[in-house]
Write a structure and sequence with these properties.
The chain has 20 helices and 14 strands. It binds FE2/S2 (inorganic) cluster.
Length: 573
């Protein structure tokens, strides 16, 4: 059923014969808008995470204008709403500390103002989940226009991938295999255009999952930021949101258990970032849909990795786009998807991807010739991770998937950083490196420290992977036998806090087991002897974060931001 203009949310602000409406209208006229620009039209908020300090989003300033063009064309009234830009590269200690901040900001920008629907502009790592979480909580029609990946990197004719090749050549430099000049050249070639990281990091993963969930126009998530098709996608998103408002196509009609499963299928087949486990749990929670981290393991056991994109594969997002992009990729996964889910197009996912073709069988592989077999993302449990831990098994050296070794434990990042380059460090390739106090409370904000550096003496000896365990996260562009998101984290007194140097840990990925070989009573004694930790921050947003953040297996959202009434309308007096 189509809405009538008087049923628009913005009508309460702009359409009534009250003194307040007079005030609102006169202020729009003050900006220079004409009454005909907005009277009886859907008001579209363009939530824009552009910033000069976010290289992944620098084009969003002009993309907002392209969205506006589409909104005007379709008979809507566009207004740009600047929101905090979470620049993965620049923000410290970690953007994850601020994901919930942006989610709250998005929700309240919508709630407090005359907004009928939103186009969400973002893509750099945490911006995607934050914008979706906020829009789901606000409950008005929302379409996500992803920032898109940057172009391939280049160094002396060699293709460079974001993050992945930075880590690789950093180790080469540490081992003395490349020069300082080489390193500077790489610095100038690894990020050649605006747009997000172009490996299958958290950005590409989350933009793809937003599409698999149904929140973008079909095919939007893979378009390189610098491609002219990207500008056209922005305009088309602007046109579409106006119709979505008339149709009252709200997020609750798009997100469901089935669409979340579709996103998890896509995650498995992309070889997606481990961060997506946390973000999807948080997104589901906003919609009031229970989602356990075990679901990622269950689905991953039957879905192989078919996207040949680094770090699990060889190519980059630009190649994935030319191969047909996410539409073709989802088409190939049809048998694993619920094609009846509704997307922002107002049609089913099946309708959206009908006829999509794969143009490069190496970039998007057939299911029977995958990049790696099912089981790419695993959820481990054991006496040091009773609430679970996550591992990207497809990015680890296979010999390490069943491993038993002595622990070298660090209580903090600084302690680890000071130790790893020491020539006299007592460490062998069989050791298991453990980093504690890097979780949601301990980091704080659960920084991406989970790809612990291989100690220099081992790098020089040619070691490139070893088992590493932490309560931190890891960049989606990282790789290695890294066990992440240990819950509960060490800082809040989880049993992981009691792991000590010299203990033995056994990792058995096939059995999904992570076991500390220490007797229960010894472990209990260590726990009770451990003093409790003070909150990392006592004022401001940091204190709010410390009071309310949940653990990794619960999505690290704030406990006060669970599902609730979709839109608590403010009084207009
Ligand atoms: Fe923005 Fe990687 S730094 S996506």
């Amino acid at each position: 059923m189509r809405k009538r203009p008087e049923e628009l949310r913005s009508h309460r602000w702009l359409g009534t014969p009250t003194l307040r409406s007079f005030g609102h209208r006169s202020r729009l006229l003050q900006i220079g808008y004409d009454r005909d620009d907005f009277a009886g039209k859907p008001v579209v908020g363009i939530v824009n995470t552009w910033s000069d300090l976010n290289p992944c989003h620098v084009h969003l300033r002009t993309r907002a204008d392209e969205v506006k063009r589409g909104v005007w064309e379709a008979g809507g009234f566009p207004l740009e709403l600047p929101a905090m830009s979470l620049s993965e590269n620049m923000m410290k200690p970690t953007t994850m500390l601020y994901r919930n901040f942006l989610a709250m900001e998005t929700e309240e920008l919508i709630r407090s103002q005359p907004i009928d629907g939103v186009v969400l502009l973002g893509g750099c790592d945490k911006t995607t989940p934050a914008l979706l979480m906020g829009a789901i909580s606000a409950g008005v029609p929302a379409i996500f226009a992803p920032a898109g990946p940057m172009l391939r990197g280049n160094w002396r004719g060699e293709v460079l991938g974001s993050g992945t090749d930075a880590w690789k050549y950093w180790d080469e430099k540490r081992a003395g295999l490349i020069t300082e000049e080489d390193w500077h050249e790489i610095e100038g070639g690894i990020a050649r255009s605006f747009g997000t990281c172009m490996t299958m990091g958290t950005a590409a993963t989350m933009m793809s999952l937003a599409e698999a969930l149904g929140f973008t126009l079909s095919g939007a998530s893979s378009i390189p930021a610098a491609d002219s098709a990207h500008a056209r996608m922005a305009t088309a998103s602007g046109r579409r949101i106006v119709e979505m408002i008339w149709q009252d196509l709200t997020p609750e009609r798009i997100i469901s258990e089935a669409s979340l499963d579709n996103a998890i299928v896509a995650h498995a087949a992309l070889g997606g970032s481990t961060n997506a486990v946390i973000h999807l749990v948080a997104i589901a929670r906003r919609a009031g849909i229970p989602l356990s981290i075990e679901r990622f393991d269950e689905i991953s056991r039957r879905v192989p990795v078919i996207a040949n994109v680094r770090p699990s594969g060889q190519l980059l997002m630009e190649d994935f786009f030319y191969a047909g992009g996410l539409r073709a990729f989802l088409g190939r996964l049809s048998a694993h998807l619920d094609l009846s889910c509704i997307t922002v197009s107002g049609r089913t996912l099946g309708d959206d991807i009908a006829g999509a073709q794969v143009w490069n069988e190496d970039a998007i592989r057939p299911l029977d010739r995958p990049v790696s077999p099912p089981g790419g993302t695993v959820v481990l449990r054991g006496n040091i991770a009773p609430d679970g831990a996550v591992m990207k098994a497809s990015a680890a050296e296979p010999r390490l998937l069943h491993h038993r070794g002595p622990v070298l434990a660090f209580e903090s990042y600084d302690e680890m950083a000071a130790a790893v380059d020491r020539d006299d460090l007592d460490v062998t390739p069989d050791h298991i490196l453990v980093l504690k106090n890097a979780g949601p409370q301990g980091g704080p904000g659960m920084p991406e420290w989970g790809m612990l550096p291989i100690p220099l003496k081992l790098v020089k000896a040619g070691v490139r992977d070893m088992v590493r365990i932490s309560d931190a996260r890891m960049s989606g562009t990282s790789y290695g036998a890294c066990i992440l998101h240990v819950a509960p984290e060490a800082y809040v007194g989880g049993p992981f806090a009691c792991v000590q140097t010299g203990d033995i840990i056994e990792l058995d990925v096939a059995q999904r087991r992570l076991h500390l070989d220490v007797a229960d009573d010894v472990l209990a004694a260590r726990r009770s002897a451990r003093p409790s930790s003070a909150p990392r921050a006592l004022r401001g947003y940091g204190a709010i974060f410390a009071q309310h953040v949940t653990q990794a297996n619960e999505g690290c959202d704030f406990d006060i931001l669970g599902p609730g009434p979709q839109l608590i309308e403010p009084e207009i007096h």
